[in-house]
Specification:
3 strands; three-stranded parallel sheet; 10 helices; globular; mainly alpha
Length: about 220
């Protein structure tokens, strides 16, 4: 087993750090609300006595900062996904499983993601190579996956099983690889048992066209 540390290049790091600060601030505000007021460090600077924690039965918010931690994880995967997430969030939508399933069923693909997340100064995506570079920009994970596909499938003629726990990440991987004409499928809980079994059989059959199988870890074995 090899552990890999993902790194952004200098240009990517600036946007990644900006989204990191947004998520960190949201996390800090959550903690402040749970403590019943401004943070202890903020009060100490003003010479005030820190507020007492709010009793658990009087709290009206969730007891765990799920949203800011999820936003931080999305940004770590891809700054393009972070842009996409905050765009949907501003429209009172989300990037959770149910909505992503709906987008998948309605043909949401790499080109649509590129149009939605493009900003002035970004890499252009008017060619196939340009689209791949655009999607990989800001995503060390997707860059690594592209490299794994080249080494595993095209050089060794073997198939690749990718295990992930976040459906949103897999959507990015699928779109990026399909844009490169790589045949992928997703094994998750929604298809029937027979449909899932067929995917497994196709993946195990070296003669089939299925090159990469994505597996969401929540899927029952």
């Amino acid at each position: 087993m090899t552990t890999i540390t993902f790194k952004h290049n200098t240009r990517e790091a600036a946007e990644h750090q900006m989204f990191h600060l947004v998520a960190a601030r949201a996390y800090d505000e959550f903690i402040e609300s749970m403590m019943g007021g401004p943070s202890r460090s903020g009060n100490a600077k003003q010479g005030q006595i820190p507020p007492k924690p709010v009793p658990q039965d009087k709290k009206t918010t969730n007891a765990f900062p799920t949203a800011p931690l999820r936003e931080h994880a999305i940004n770590t995967c891809s700054t393009k996904l972070a842009r996409f997430h905050y765009q949907l969030k501003s429209a009172k939508l989300n990037t959770k499983v149910q909505f992503m399933d709906l987008m998948r069923e309605n043909g949401f693909e790499a080109e649509v993601l590129a149009v939605m997340t493009y900003r002035p100064g970004d890499l252009t995506y008017d060619t196939r190579d340009g689209l791949l570079a655009f999607l990989a920009d800001g995503s060390p994970k997707l860059k690594l996956l592209f490299g794994q596909v080249l080494r595993t499938y095209y050089e060794k003629k073997a198939k690749l099983l990718v295990v992930e726990e976040t459906p949103l990440y897999i959507k990015l991987y699928e779109d990026g690889l399909r844009a490169a004409w790589v045949y992928t499928e997703l094994l998750y809980s929604k298809p029937t048992y027979k449909e899932r079994q067929k995917l497994i059989d196709d993946f195990n059959n070296l003669a089939s066209g299925l090159q990469i199988l994505f597996l969401i870890v929540e899927v029952a074995s």
